[in-house]
Amino acid sequence: xxxxxxxxxxxxxxxxxxxxxxxxxxxxxxxxxxxxxxxxxxxxxxxxxxxxxxxxxxxxxxxxxxxxxxxxxxxxxxxxxxxxxxxxxxxxxxxxxxxxxxxxxxxxxxxxxxxxxxxxxxxxxxxxxxxxxxxxxxxxxxxxxxxxxxxxxxxxxxxxxxxxxxxxxxxxxxxxxxxxxxxxxxxxxxxxxxxxxxxxxxxxxxxxxxxxxxxxxxxxxxxxxxxx
Length: 228
What we know:
Largest sheet: 2 strands, antiparallel
Strand order of the largest sheet: 1-2
Shape: globular
Strand content: under 5%
Radius of gyration: 18 Å
Oligomer: single chain
Mean pLDDT: 90
Low-confidence stretches: none
Helix content: over 70%
Order of helices and strands: HHHHHHEEHHHH
Number of helices: 10
Structural class: mainly alpha
């Protein structure tokens, strides 16, 4: 790994850490507002990464850094605790909790896109090749180039996180979001099935990893078209 790759990998990790922290803090906040204080009591209604790392040190630190160092790519995860009994009593509130995480990722991506667009219009940034790592370039090296790179990573990574987590397979958030489009009884059934079949969660994750590219790359192309 050359120095440029090492720096880019470090920036990817920092963006991943901040983005997943915002994702889980959003879950925790919406759950708290809905009456479940489990994550709040664990300190996760917070933009401080430490409580989230404390809960998932392997997924938020070890695996991402190993993936970057080995060149296999950034992979990681995080989680916010919730009360399953609360989700059964209030399945619609649980569905909003599920939506909060990926919605936050898309909001971050939109904010990054706005900053990128402003930079392009001002001539501070230049359009780069439509790749994940070089969505925008910089008209001058140095700090401006670093800002362009960070914005590109925030933009692309949060679109990826949002798309992946919205896939409708348990344990991904998209499965819980389905409850918003059903009756109260239907939302309750979804929550019961999620708990009943949680031992098969690995199947949902594998399906997600297999299918996410089919959603992510078209979404990224549309988003790039809007930015440029």
